Amino acid sequence: MAYNITLIPGDGIGPELTEATRRVLEATGVTFNWDVVDAGVDVIEKHGTPLPEHVLESIRSNKVALKGPITTPVGYGFRSVNVSLRKMLDLYACLRPCKSYAGTPTYFNDVDVVIVRENTEDLYAGIEFEKGNRETAEIIQAIQRLSGSEIRPDSGISIKPISVTGTQRIVRFAFEYARTNGRKKVTALHKANIMKFTDGLFLSVAREVAESYPDIEFEDRIIDNMAMQMVKNPAQFDVIVCPNLYGDIVSDLGAGLVGGLGLAPGANIGDEAALFEPTHGSAPKYKGMNKANPMAQMLSGVLMLRHLGEFGAADRLENAIAAVISEGKKVSYDLLPMDQRDRAVGTSQVADAIIERMG
Ligand code: NAD
Fold this sequence. Notes:
359 residues, alpha/beta, Isopropylmalate Dehydrogenase, Rossmann fold, 3 domains, 10-stranded mixed beta sheet, two-stranded antiparallel ribbon, 12 helices, binds nicotinamide-adenine-dinucleotide
């Protein structure tokens, strides 16, 4: 059976990475019907929006999408396509595994953490009030009236909503993921000592949900302490669940622990659809240079194969990627020490080496 998958190449290094990934996915023997659709700043002229309706329709109908990174130009007056896709399709769970592969130049060789980031709420909800606007002045007055707190009139304001509903479903997702994948522990991140009604709510709901999963250990960490513990002893963590902004920061930290953004895959999962994309962005300075590491995009493809239930193909592809990393001969520049980078191979040659490995 061929799977119908929406393929969004993205921009910057996206088209090169998704092409390399399409090739290795097809080499696993699984068959796909790719519905290739474009989004981002380059389609605005043609469609009047960076996220045309037919892109959303394609994902809603296929239920699974593989996506390259998309640039969010600064000062363009529209929201990030990446954030909009997550919100409009209610892809509430962002899954970001950080795993050490032998042969990667890093300080740690025993990291195997999965970060589950809430994807729809928190300071990322996009509810913002610009300094100097009439609405902002009204909000400032209302806050002064309702809470007695003074806010300087020249302030900008971002709102941080965290709900019981949103927290319940993300924490349940983390525990279900732990159970299905043989994981032993879930750690919740927060700053509940300071933000009692948002992070405090997140923590108390997480504790309640944890009671339904007595087979999985539960603990919590304050986010600043977590930052220190993750760089000191990352192997102690298994599954991490957190609100949106902490998840964003901790997943880049996790990527750094395992060798950088070139090895950090991601999945955005909701009840109706799932979208697989690397943690990194479009790295415009490497656009069209056949230079960027396609492995984060490919490992996102591995997550997609597992989501489709193609566990054998997923293991074959992940093992081939691991073998190419550990051999160290056909890897991109970012996986080599500074003094050996002149022997790096390009994006498409990395794909060739992985396909060769899969036989
Ligand atoms: P970035 O992740 O694109 O790049 C940061 C640096 O990391 C690059 O300059 C490069 O040195 C390195 N890097 C990233 N990916 C790599 C790869 N595959 N191989 C080797 N090196 C790699 O971050 P940025 O420069 O902050 O963002 C660029 C654009 O991407 C921005 O417009 C941003 O909004 C967007 N972005 C998109 C997504 C997404 O599509 N989900 C995610 C993050 C950022």
